[in-house]
Design goal:
5-stranded antiparallel sheet, 25% strand, alpha+beta, binds pyridoxal-5'-phosphate, 7 helices
């Protein structure tokens, strides 16, 4: 027995990270290998602990759930039990509407866990005032300072599984899972896990160039024949590429404790690409830019680990990183940048497997703002269709925006698709979705402006990170290009 040998601070720390156990007897006559993810190992004894914790902590971060407030939900038992447990641990009141189809044991367990339970008629339509949905809604209306979890219609239910169950299964199977079978009640598990497993979020690099780019040339690249870079199945399919040009193969940068394999630097655009092998202990790597990078992005090329981004405008940036392949807001961990900010020559790495595991191969991209061409910064949203304007000093060709305080997609807009304002359709860097059709960002001659109240680009009071690149540098003097 090797699990949990240390003291655990709270039951909340035991939610998720459930075991995957190989099935033998029940599948012995079937081809393939089968595993069961034992969600009963969660402290609340079901998968529902995950969504309960995720939704509650999201509400806390959004500032809509505070000490002493009330949590309300419609439940057939398991979600309610998880909520009641977490409410008790965190000091909230929990009120649950349950149908009289659920067993008395369930109701007793909820009450024993401290919840106020309202048993409602099962034999009425969902929109009847006595149904457990309508009763929960009414209690929510009548209870000041209450939050309705609303698992059946809450996107965070799906997101919880995208953020936890999906990555766990991927890591436990070392990315080899081919099929997922799941029970479905609200559909949260199957949608969230399925979405994660489809997005290829953090896989290592493909060696199948026919599926992507088969060659780089001095002025472009050659696509392979297959999806995703060149699918011809439908005439309506279009492809986007965004390219950062470094300076050929480059050479080893020996400024840090790790000598890079290659570092290729575009010193005019202040952009570099380096490759290196991890050591597993604190290290420094030379980046080759003309000064301190504003943004550093690292990805293992031979391991299924997340894309870690350092961005200078994340608070306490050298203790944090944000994942390019995920909707998460930043996480805190000293094992990425070892609590040390990049300098004019070096990036410091901790020992995390995402940036510096012994023997693993990594690619590192570094950017530093160039007056009139590129800028990496942050702005505060105003939650209004007449949104905040961010001055760049150039007309952006590509803009990437990420809500750094809440779960939201990485929004990308550029000037190459539908054209000009207001048709700047969003693509998301962290998933495989087609472009959005809601047009909500204006690209302007000297910056950008938000045109909607939306979590991913413009919630009032929220801080957003951005990365923006403009027109090609003008000569060597980096003059801002002018408006069209
Ligand atoms: C124990 C348990 N497992 C699985 C499910 C189904 O999961 P989902 O609601 O994510 O579809 C539920 C509830 O609906 C449940 O209570």
């Amino acid at each position: 027995m090797i699990r949990n040998q240390q003291i655990t601070n709270s039951l909340l720390d035991l939610i998720g990270e459930t075991p995957l156990v190989q099935l033998h007897r029940i599948t012995e006559e079937l081809p393939g290998r089968y595993y069961a993810k034992i969600e009963a190992f969660n402290p609340g004894q079901s998968v529902k602990d995950r969504i309960a914790l995720y939704i509650i902590e999201n509400a806390e971060k959004e500032g809509i759930l505070k000490a002493g407030n009330t949590i309300i939900e419609t439940t057939s038992g398991n979600t309610g039990f998880s909520l009641a447990m977490i409410a008790m641990l965190k000091g909230y009141t929990c009120k649950l509407a349950i149908s009289d189809k659920s067993s008395k044991d369930k109701v007793d367990a909820l009450r024993a866990m401290g919840a106020e339970v309202y048993v409602c008629a099962a034999n009425v339509a969902a929109n009847h005032s006595k149904s457990y949905y309508e009763v929960a809604k009414r209690i929510h209306r009548e209870t000041p300072n209450s939050v309705y979890i609303n698992q059946y219609f809450n996107e965070l239910n799906i997101e919880a599984h995208y953020a936890t169950t999906g990555p766990e299964i991927w890591q436990q199977t070392e990315g080899k899972i081919t099929h997922l079978v799941a029970a479905s009640g609200t559909g949260g598990t199957i949608s969230g896990v399925g979405k994660y497993l489809k997005s290829d979020a953090n896989t290592n690099q493909t060696t199948n160039s026919s599926q992507s780019i088969s060659a780089f040339t001095s002025d472009g690249f050659t696509t392979g024949t297959g999806n995703p870079a060149n699918e011809s199945a439908s005439t309506t399919l279009g492809f986007m590429s965004w390219n950062w040009k470094a300076n050929g193969q480059g050479s080893s940068n020996t400024a840090g404790s790790i000598n890079t394999t290659y570092t290729s630097v575009n010193s005019t655009a202040d952009f570099s690409i380096s490759t290196y092998t991890g050591t597993g202990s604190t290290a420094t790597v030379g980046h080759g830019l003309s000064g301190t990078p504003d943004v550093v992005l690292v990805k293992s090329t031979n391991d299924n680990t997340d894309w870690r981004m350092y961005h200078k405008d994340i608070p306490s940036a050298n203790t944090r990183a944000i994942k390019l392949n995920d909707v998460d807001y930043w996480n805190t961990d000293n094992s990425w940048w070892n609590n040390t900010s990049p300098t004019s020559t070096l990036v410091t790495l901790g020992s995390s497997s995402t940036v510096n595991q012994s023997g693993n191969l990594y690619v590192m991209y570094c950017w530093k703002s160039v007056n009139g061409f590129s800028k990496y910064g942050s702005f505060i949203g105003n939650g209004n269709a007449n949104g905040s304007f961010t001055y760049l000093g150039f007309k952006p060709k590509l803009l990437i925006v990420k809500n750094q305080g809440a779960s939201a997609s990485w929004v990308m807009v550029d000037d190459k698709r539908l054209g000009y304002n207001v048709k700047n359709r969003e693509l998301f860097a962290n998933n495989t979705n087609v472009e959005e059709t809601n047009d909500q960002i204006d690209l302007l001659s000297n910056g950008f402006k938000m045109r909607a109240n939306s979590t991913s680009i413009n919630t009032a009071g929220r801080s957003y990170l951005y990365l923006a690149w403009g027109q090609t540098l003008v000569g060597s003097n980096n003059k801002p290009c002018t408006a069209r």
